[in-house]
Amino acid sequence: MNSLIKEMQALAQELLASGEVKGVFGWTKGSRWYLTPPLFIQKAEDAIKLHYDEFAINNLTSLLLDYRNSDDKIAIFVKGCDSRGILRLIQDKQVNPEKVLVIGLPCPGMVDKEAVKDQRHVHDLPLLRKCQECRYPNPVLADRTLGDVQVTKEPGVPIGITAERAIQKGVGSKGKERYQEVKEIEALSADEKYAFWQKQHEKCLRCYACRNICPACNCRECIFESDKKGWVNKAATTTDNAFFGITRAMHVAGRCVDCGECERVCPAGIPIMKINRKIMQDIDELFGTYDAGTDLEEAGPLNHFKLDDPEEFL
Amino acid sequence: MVKDNATPENLAKATTEEIKRINPLIPMKAKVTKIIEETPDVKTFYISKEENGQMVVPFHTAPGQLAMLSLPGVGEAMFSATDAPDHLQLSIKKVGTLTDELHEIVPGQTVGIRGPYGNGFPMDQIKGKNVLFIAGGIGLAPVRTAVRYCVDHRDDFAKLHLVYGSRSPADLVFQYDLFETWPAVRDFQVSVTVDRGDDNWKGNVGFVPAFLEELKPNPDNTVCIICGPPIMIKFTLGILDKLGFTAENVITTLEMRMKCGIGKCGRCNIGSCYICLDGPVFTLAEMKKMPNEY
Amino acid sequence: MKAFPKAKLQEVLKTLASKGTLYVPALVDETHRYYPYRADIQVSLEQNSAISPKEIFFPSTEKIYNFTAYGIDGDYEEILPDRTACVLFGVRSCDMQAILCMDDVFLTRGYIDEYYATRREGATIVALGCSKAGADCFCSSMGLNPVEHEGADAQLYDLGDYYGIQGRTEKGEKVVEALAVAGLLSESSAEVLVPEEFVLQVDSEGIAEKLQAMFEHSLWDQLWRKCINCGTCTYLCPTCHCFDISEKKKNQHCGVKIKCWDSCMFNEYAMMAGGHNPRPSKKEKVRQRFMHKLRYFPERYGKYQCTGCGRCIAKCPVNLEITDVINQVREAKVNG
Ligand SMILES: Cc1cc2nc3c(=O)[nH]c(=O)nc-3n(C[C@H](O)[C@H](O)[C@H](O)COP(=O)(O)OP(=O)(O)OC[C@H]3O[C@@H](n4cnc5c(N)ncnc54)[C@H](O)[C@@H]3O)c2cc1C
Ligand code: SF4
Ligand code: SF4
Ligand code: SF4
Ligand code: SF4
Ligand code: FES
User: Where in the numbering of this chain does the 4Fe-4S ferredoxin-type domain appear (chain A) (predicted)?
Assistant: First the structure.
């Protein structure tokens, strides 16, 4: 891992010093041993602040939206799951591929900081569920790669210098079970489902963290931004919250890249990915397996029309 | 509010016990009694409330103070209010949701009104001095509250001078005051300019800053009250400085997004000031001490 | 000091709940916040609540009046909360201090917010001293004592197997008395447990003064870069008081005006007609938040608007930590 961090720092240093890029998004060591938050640097001498480890959970890609009107080229480090966010932004024409330099990293598998027991001393933590279910541990797109990782559009096992450790920890071990939680909800009666989601939506604070962290939520003006238009109310009531939650899910349907960031950041602990996964499962069943944000050339089943599309909703 | 002594200083110091208990967020039910079409996009609304079968002023406002006007089901916004014996006058430019709807209403319409808000112009401190008023466009609405005060208390002030400009002759607001009432007042010079004239326009053509530079008002013992679009203010302040006006003697009003009007909802702050409560009137000297974020 | 055994907590709560609404920190549907007490609720005093008690006095959404509009006629009808008494049980020092910040905003400076005041006046606050600091707590750095707060009506102390209790105000004495009458109190001389040294510490001394010269500082050019401008930090913060007033139409003729939480992180917050926004980008928004907490609020009300509760640190999606900001301000070079 240390050699990988050194490689990252050296590359960022070189890219900034040569002027090839004007800024670099990566991670840095945070205030506690279990925190590795995002970092943006613009000066070559700051490259030494970059860090990478199993706490570098943040998907940085939505931060690129702040530069969508800028002419500056920005470099960004990505894990496998993050890289799908870049594809999302490019396909949605929010990011000009000429203006980003994507640096793919091998992923050691991220661990769950919620399980920290001792803040003062480093100890082992369990692998995040999303990493157990991960099917794209390698970047689907990258201009450069480090740590012997390989770019691949296909689902697979971890590649590169952290691969052994990742596999040992269980990265991807539950890839086939990723719809299990969806099945659990599907097994409920309509009333039970309703009660379950009402309870969840009741908790929502309408902080919009889920939307703002999401690479698929990249509209220049979100409909929830403008209460003037009267589509949605600011009131954080269960009904309005549900309207928000469900609308957001439908807006990212077929475009959600399965990074799980919305669910991670939700301060109310709403299991947002359960809805997203349900939609993914339905798409798989209706149109054949499709993973959004893995292939630049493929528009995705909800983005084009084919004569043999199923017509169940018509 | 602190008893009958609601000066900004008293308000700022008022403790819980000293504050009169009303629900400040509930509007008073009032009626629009008259509507004057000032220009194609500005209308003046006379607003009174009914009390024992009579139409009376909802509340009195000091020059420069504000009122929050609402149309049930549409919205609520802050406007400068001009005080009159039995009504308040609000001159409103059509710019968005609420103001568009307001331009559709007819006399008799029920509206909600709450206030008075804000500190108002320091008329007491201006007493005995010459007053130079400068306004652009709808900016004459707040300035007019001070002009009317000076006219009503004519002997308390030395010379009065108004410099006013709008885009075109059709966009001049309060023409009845500009061309009839005020020129008839003793020692009151009214100078009007437009950006673009028309066939009938005999007055000055040009922007306010340039016109002001030509007029060369004397800064001695003079206080300037200026309101208008930011761009006009910016250039005019340069000219005022050149003419020798000090920052202490230039008074203006600031505008920020407002919701509560009572210093609670947070959004109208510039630094540690809430514009709805501590403003909207500030001297240029005070503004220079505030963060440049408006 | 008077005390009751921790084992009798349920009885204590039952006694207090019999006198009026009792709010306790509890876990419901995996959410740790203050709920009205019920016998079957899972009371949780282990650590501070994830959602602050500010929502008891300042709910995230509340109706302020009904309106009707028929042609040119219309009417307004005030909706005020009930002026009933309630007890808040287990409020930590940070949240007690936050309530004092809220009091400053909603109850002073010319106007009283009746919605806040009505709820606040009827409330008795029973504070709970901390014997263990949470992972993100730094109240001691913000000048507070985690063990007690003089603003509370009554104070609980952790005595190990017992909770010590002291009344501070008339309202607080009534709580103590009610427990005494119920035969729940005994005398204890056990030591008050205090937290060990905090993991998160900063030096906040003089930060408000230093920030006066830092509005244009280059620090702000960097701080915003990872922020996603969500409402997490401000909505979880026990001192953030910003609200929006908007309306909900029931039909063409009637509706209700609502007051709901708002945040300076949102773009609409300061946006004016015609599209001018005095704080257009993330930089100005992030600056506003920290400036308000650490400089503007102290200038206006004489205290920091951050009480070190650590909620924003715990939940910020990108770990933009106010403690780190304070450190950066401390270290920043200021010209002139
Ligand atoms: C202190 C003060 C005095 C004012 N005096 C006058 C006056 O005398 N005459 C006049 O025509 N206008 C005045 N305005 C501006 C007036 O408040 C806005 O034009 C009005 O709010 C626009 O509302 P809207 O719903 O039509 O526009 P929209 O764009 O639909 O407004 C949407 C929201 O933005 C808010 N908002 C929009 N623009 C402003 C603004 N400039 N200031 C504050 N909030 C805004 C509104 O309250 C509303 O909630 C004043 C504003 C302030 C702050
Ligand atoms: S992050 Fe959670 S609380 Fe915030 S808006 Fe999204 S669902 Fe609601
Ligand atoms: S500081 Fe963190 S919690 Fe606050 S708006 Fe920014 S990203 Fe959201
Ligand atoms: S700013 Fe953060 S730490 Fe400070 S009081 Fe608010 S939520 Fe707590
Ligand atoms: S301005 Fe921002 S930081 Fe200050 S109280 Fe409002 S939401 Fe909180
Ligand atoms: S308008 Fe609410 S604080 Fe000024």
Answer: 195-225, 247-276
**pLDDT tens sequence across B280-289:** 999 999 999 9
Interchain contact, C248 vs A233, CB within 8 Å: yes
pLDDT at C83: 81
What six digits make up the tokens of B55? 């139409």
Together in a domain, A107 and A193? no
Residue at token pair 């900016």 = B139
Given C76, C111, C262, which is nearest B263 (Cβ)?
Answer: C111
- 3-state SS of chain C is CEEEEHHHHHHHHHHHHCCCEEEEEEEECCEEEEEECCCCCEECCCCCCCCCCHHHHCCCEEEEEEEEEECCEEEEEECCCCCCCEEEEEECHHHHHHHHHHHHHHHCCCCCCHHHHHHHHCEEEEEECCCCCCCCCCHHHHCCCCCCCCCCCEEEEECCCEEEEEECCHHHHHHHHHHHHCCCCEECCCCCCCCCCCCCCCCCCCHHHHHCCCCCCCHHHHHHHHCCCCCHHHHHCCCCCCEEEEEEECCCCEEEEEEEECCCCCCHHHCCHHHCCCCCCHHHHHHHHHHHHHHHHHHHHCCCCCCCCCHHHHHCCCCCCHHHHHHHHHHCCCCC
> What integer pLDDT is reported at residue A229 of this predicted model?
61
Residue A217 domain boundaries: 180-287
- In this predicted model, what pLDDT tens digit does every residue of C313-327 receive, in sequence order? 999 999 999 999 999
pLDDT attached to residue B5: 47
**Claim to verify: residue A125 and residue A230 sit in the same structural domain:** no
Rounded Cα distance between A216 and A210, Å, is 11
> Could you say which residues of chain C have pLDDT below 70?
336
- Residues of chain C positioned with their CB less than 8 A from the CB of A267: 50, 232, 235-236, 315
Residues A66 and A190 in one domain: no
User: Closest Cα to atom 3, ligand 6: which residue?
Assistant: B263
* CATH superfamily membership of B8-116: Translation factors (2.40.30.10)
Q: How many other β-carbons are positioned within 10 Å of the β-carbon of residue B174?
A: 24
Ligand nearest to the CA of B268: 6
Distance from CA of A222 to the nearest CA of C (A): 11
Annotated domain spans of chain C: 2-59+81-187, 207-242+263-331
Contacts of C32 in chain A (CB under 8 A): none
B123-253 CATH fold: Rossmann fold (3.40.50)
Three-state secondary structure call for residue B146: helix
Point out the least confidently predicted range of A44-58, A220-234, B253-267, C237-251. A220-234
- Predicted local distance difference test score (pLDDT) of residue B8: 53
Omega of the bond prior to B63 within 30 degrees of 0, cis? Answer: no
Give the list of residues 6+ apart from residue A121 with CB closer than 8 angstroms, or none.
A33
Give the pLDDT score at B2: 40
**pLDDT value, residue B16:** 61
Q: Are A9 and A138 part of one and the same domain?
A: yes
pTM, two decimals, is: 0.93
- Residue A20 belongs to a domain: yes
Q: What is the ipTM of this complex?
A: 0.93
Task: State yes or no: B260 annotated in a binding site.
Answer: yes
Does residue A160 form part of some domain? Answer: no
* Coil/strand/helix, residue B55: strand
CB-side exposure of B233: number of CA atoms within 13 Å?
Answer: 19
Tokens of C292: 């308000």
pLDDT at B21: 77
Locate the domains of chain B by residue range: 8-116, 123-253
CA of C251 to the centre of ligand 1 (A): 26
Q: What is the dihedral of CA B72, B77, B80, B82, to 10 degrees?
A: 0
The pLDDT of B188-201, averaged and rounded, is 93
> Max CA-CA distance within chain B?
62
Residues A240 and A187 in one domain: yes
What does the alpha-carbon distance between residue A159 and residue A163 come to, in Å, rounded to a whole number? Answer: 5
